[in-house]
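Fold sample X.
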Amino acid sequence: MLKEKIKIRVAGFLFINKKLLLVEHHKEKSLHWVLPGGGVEFHETAKTALKRELKEELNLEVRVDDFLFVDEVIWENRHNIDLYFSMSLTGPLKIKLEEGSALNGYKFFSQNDIPAIILKPDLKDIIMQTFENNFYKGFKTYEN
């Protein structure tokens, strides 16, 4: 049964030594890479949600910096509004994946790595711009 509910998700761009952190996600019988983040809870700000998600899922302490862009994902079984931010590391880089989560792994990717990966939603064009410090500002819709 289709749930008629829109999910608000936050995600962040975290660069360390000119490499971008992505997490490998296992969902709906597929493995793919996503920018780290998660769902916003009721009465929680987007920035607070992103900080919480990074701490819970990766054990990272971050500062959420600038709002970058929003996208809308409409696939047969989901409807997400995704808010994207730049982030800075404020604590030690000691990643520990949350047990029992849908995360399968993590990796810091160079610009040359990005074209070959499976990314959902497919933000490769936007991610490639960020390596040049040219952050996308706008709105995109992804539908299947």
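Fold sample Y, listed below.
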Amino acid sequence: MSGIPAVPDQTVPTADRRPPGFLLIEILAVIATLACVWLTAKDNILCWPTGIIGSLLYLYIFYHARLYSDVLLQLYFLFTSIYGWYNWGHGGAGDTALKVTRLTLAATGGWAAVIIIGTLLLGSFMKRRTRAAIPYGDASITVLSLVAQYLLTAKVLESWALWIATDAIATVVYWKRRLYLTAGLYGVLFVLACKGLMEWIRLL
């Protein structure tokens, strides 16, 4: 036996190693999320139950990737997806299906302020209090998604503009965290969000 101690494999940091089956779960999450966004762009109410499945899968993924803001975000998605499912079907006048609307100029400015302040506050907290890998990038994804999802449950056109911004940032963040399938997913979601914006403009 050699007296030289074994050198541990440093190719992947221990804290970043993935549990068994992680890749399969990520593949399933990608499929569910793509289906959800495609159905949303088509104004199909089945986007909501499909989104619930994707959120459950990503809860597991983001926890193991140490993207803690995104863990909280997926919990939010679960609850808002249930609400959105109901509201799309019954939120219109006389308990009818909801129609696409737009934000006023004042509401647009208000939401912009919420996004900027929220990102700075959450990013600062994550940087100081957690082991978050990319605190401000992670926080911006979270805050943008919170607002975009809320507006989506109300069928507000501008929700798509926020999803476009979210998907662009997320593509970079997840690639840096070696979530390559998820980074690729968000690249595709960026394209689908642009398509969704165009599709909903036609519904006005």
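Sample Y note: The chain is about 70% helix and 0% strand.
Also: The first helix runs from residue 22 to 41.
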